[in-house]
Specification:
It contains two helices and two strands. The chain is mainly alpha-helical. It has one domain.
């Protein structure tokens, strides 16, 4: 499996492990790393880069978890 493009093609067990964790094209990581940042650089005031501005409102780790749970719930 080169990534996790279409979770509908996989069974429940595979989705529980892989959903929300596509391979990182830059680093090649196959598991989403734990985001330790509390704040993220922004393009400008009110313009978050890649959708993240503050750790409490969301980060890459939380997004991966949300995608996985949504896949399991159907």
């Amino acid at each position: 499996m080169s990534g996790f493009e279409d979770p509908a093609d996989y069974g429940f067990e595979t989705r529980a492990i892989r959903a929300g964790q596509p391979h990182d094209p830059y680093t090649g990581a196959v598991v989403t790393p734990i985001a330790l940042a509390t704040t993220f650089a922004q393009e400008g005031v009110g313009r978050p880069r890649h959708g993240y501005e503050y750790g409490r409102t969301g980060n890459q780790t939380r997004h991966a978890y949300e995608v996985c749970v949504a896949s399991l719930e159907g």
